[in-house]
Amino acid sequence: MPFADTLMFGPFRKLLSRLCSHKSGNATMIVALGLPALIGGTGFAVDTAQWYMWKREMQYAVDQAAVAGAWARSKDATKDTFVERARQEFASNISTTEGFSTRPYVALSNYAAGADNSVIVSASATKQLPFSGLLTGHATTVSVFAQASFEAGWTFTSCLVATDPDDDGAITIGGSSVLTASCGIAALSDSEEAIIVNGSPDIDAGWILAAGGIDPWLEENTDDIVMAHLDGLYDPFAELNPPNPPSAQVSRTYSCVKGAKTTRANVADTATTSYTYWKGADYATAVATNYNKAINPTTSTTSQTYTIVSNETIDGTVYTTTVEWTAVNGSAKNTVWEKKTTVTATTYSNTTSTTAPDQANTFPGTYSGIDIACSTVFAPGIYVINGGVLNINAQYVVSGSGVMFVLKNGAGIRINGGANINLTAMTASELMAQGVSSTVAQKLQGMLIFEDRNSSGDTHNIINGNASTVLNGTVYLPASGLTFSGTASVTSQCLMVVANTIYITGDANMSTFCPAGSTEDTTVATTASRVRLVS
C-alpha cells in the first residue's frame, strides 16, 4: 500500500478497530434493529382487539336479530314481517361497525326434523386498519351467523268441555258411543285419569286435551291430536254471569190448554119450495082455494159443501120446514093468502172428528219448574228455572227460537228420548232487546242453557236425544254433571256442551254437533310460542 493511502486510512482503521472492540453500545443497536418488529407487533395486537370487538358486537346483533325474527314468525299476525323485524333488531344493536357492516341476510331455514322452522341471520364487516393493512396490503372481513328456531303457539277450540279441576273421569266415554264431530274434547281436570274410555267407541274428535292424564286407548286407537298435561286450559265462560232482566223476574207457572174438538162433514142441502092459496079474514082460519096457483109452481134447489159442523153431527138426513104467509088479494073475509112452504133436506156424510193436542204457550219469566206435559211453544226470552227441573218428556213437540234457560238453586234439566225438540239460543240483538248490555250480549249470544255457577248443582242432568232433537246453542253446566245419550243435531250453529263432568253412554251419537261447513270457535286453550337460539 502506498504511503499516502497509509496516511489516509490508517487512522480510520484504528477507529473501526476500537469500535469493534467496544461493547457498551450493543443494546442500543439491538433495540434499533428490533424496533420495527416491536412496533408492528403492537399494532397488530391493537388491530386484533378491534377485530374481536367487531366480532362480539356483530354476533350479539345477529343473535338478537335471529331471535326477533323467530318471535315474529311464530305469530300469525307478524309472520310475514320477520325479515323487517330481524333487520330492525340488528340495526338497533350496531354501533362500532355502523357504516361498514353489510345489511344482514335474513331467511327461513330447516332445523332438526322441521321445515322452515327457524330464522337464520348473517352479516359481515370489512375495513382496512393501519397496521394490519400495512402488513397484509388489504382490508380485513369479520363474518357472523346466528340461527333461532321457533314453535308457534297453539289455539284450541272444543265443543265438549269438562270443567271439574281434579276429578277422575271428568270425561268418561262409554261402550260403543260415536264421537265423530271433529270439534275437540277437553278436560280441565289435572287427575292422571282426567279422560277415561270404557269400551270401544268410535272417535274422531280432531283433538283431545287434558290438564291431567288421558287414557292411552285414545292415542292407540285414533288419529286425533292427543295432548295430556297441557297447560293453559280454561273454562271459556268462567267470567260470565246469567242475565236477569225484568222480563225474567216475572213469576209464572206452566200449564197446558186442552185442545178443541173439530167435526167436519160433507153437507148436501136440498130445498123444495111449494105454494098454496087460502081465503079468509086471516090465514089461521082461511080455507084452501085455487087462486092463481099456476103462477108459482113447486121448485127444488141443491147445494153441497165440506165444512165444520156441530161436534154432535152424525151421518144421515135431517129435514126442516119453514112457512111464510102473504096476503095477495081481496079484503076482510075475501082476503086471499099465499102460503110458501120450504122443506130443506140436509144430508151429512163422511163425518169425521179431530181433537187438537193440548197446547202450552209459555212466556219468559221465573218458574219453580217446567214439566212438559203437552206440545209447548216457548216465546223468545229468558226462562229462569228456580230450584226445580226443566223436564222435556217424550212424544211432545217442543219449540222455541231466541230462548235461554237459566238454572238456579239446584235446578236441573232432563231431555228425554222421543220428544220432538227444536230450540235455538238467543242472538246478541235479541239479548239486547231484553235489556242486556251490548258488551255482555256479545259474550252471551248462543247460550241455550246457562247454569248459575253458584247453584248447588244437579247430579241427574241428562240429554237423551233422538233424530228429532235439535239444540242450536251452548249447554253450560259448571256446577253439575251431564249424561249424554242418544243423539242431537243442529241447524244454525254448533252445539257446545260444557259441564262439570260429562258421561257419554254407549248409545250416544255425537256426529252432528256442527252444521256442514261450520266450526266451533270458542277457545278453551292457548299455548305460548317458543323461540330459542340454536346457533
Index terms:
about 525 residues; alpha/beta; 4 domains; 20-stranded parallel β-sheet; five-stranded antiparallel β-sheet; 7 helices; 33 strands; about 20% helix; disordered N terminus
Short description:
Helix content is 19%, strand content 39%. It is of the alpha/beta class and 535 residues long. It folds into 4 domains: 27-151; 155-234, no CATH class; 240-259 and 358-495, no CATH class; 261-355, no CATH class.
Description of the molecule:
The protein has 535 residues and is of the alpha/beta class. The chain has four domains: 27-151; 155-234, no CATH class; 240-259 and 358-495, no CATH class; 261-355, no CATH class. Helices cover 19% and strands 39% of the residues. The protein has helices at residues 3-21, 26-73, 82-92, 130-136, 216-221, 428-433, 438-444, and strands at 105-109, 118-127, 140-151, 155-157, 160-162, 171-175, 178-179, 185-187, 195-199, 202-203, 207-210, 225-227, 261-279, 287-289, 299-309, 316-329, 336-355, 359-362, 365-367, 370-371, 375-378, 381-386, 389-392, 397-408, 412-415, 420-425, 447-451, 462-464, 469-472, 474-485, 496-504, 523-526, 530-533. The strands form five sheets. The chain has a 20-stranded parallel β-sheet that branches. Strands 13, 14, 15, 16 and 17 form a five-stranded antiparallel β-sheet that branches. It starts with a helix and ends with a strand.
